[in-house]
């Protein structure tokens, strides 16, 4: 039996051109650690964001990209699969082959608009369109500030279709000590929506009781 048959169900992760590449990269790492097969798509703009916001350089060619992501995340051979922007034969392009869950993280407002209007101009948009039409889990993580009425209308429309709109707006009640803690806050929220167990941060009620007492006293 080949190793890839032992992976947990695949999750599609797409990075687009919004700020917050760290969220998507961390999500890939955690999914790999949890034993899931991860199908990855990275837009041209997202490559630029990764290069701007991190010290990571990711190749554009899918096979080389899969190798680079596998090396940084410690993935097993075949655990990460990458697809090009116009690879219409990729499994994510069809309802009969797409994964049961997809996350666009970070999600640019351009991608948000395209998905909301069913544009399907590239593989990321088509994969999201498939997730919606097949009634599968789709989590979109927009990172913009402020949101315009156009953005808000698109998010409302998608939410009414069952899409999870999860803005990259980390909380502070867990008393983060680093940027990594803030990133993990959002990644933990995504994993909750996917039904994947994690230990990135405690759930509400598992926080330090002294902190909870302070919140109560301040109210």
Instruction: Specify the biggest β-sheet.
Output: 6 strands, parallel
Secondary-structure content class: alpha/beta
Number of domains: 1
Measure the end-to-end span.
58 Å
Mean pLDDT: 93
What is the CATH level 1 assignment? Alpha Beta
Q: Which topology does CATH recognise?
A: Rossmann fold
The CATH superfamily is Flavin prenyltransferase-like
Major sheet strand order? 3-2-1-4-5-6
Please indicate the percent range of residues in DSSP E strands (runs of 2 or more): 15-25%
H and E string? EHEHHEEHHEHEHH
Query: Number of DSSP helices?
Result: 8
Proper CATH architecture: 3-Layer(aba) Sandwich
Protein name: Flavin prenyltransferase UbiX
Binding site for FMN: 17-19, 43, 108-111, 143
Organism: Halomonas colorata
Family: Belongs to the UbiX/PAD1 family.
Question: What does this molecule look like?
Answer:
With 219 residues, the chain is of the alpha/beta class. It has a single domain (3-218), classed as Rossmann fold, CATH 3.40.50.1950. The chain has eight helices and six strands, in the order E-H-E-H-H-E-E-H-H-E-H-E-H-H. A six-stranded parallel beta sheet has the order 3-2-1-4-5-6, sandwiched between helices. Helix 1 links the parallel strand 1 and strand 2. It starts with 7 loop residues before the first strand and ends with a helix.
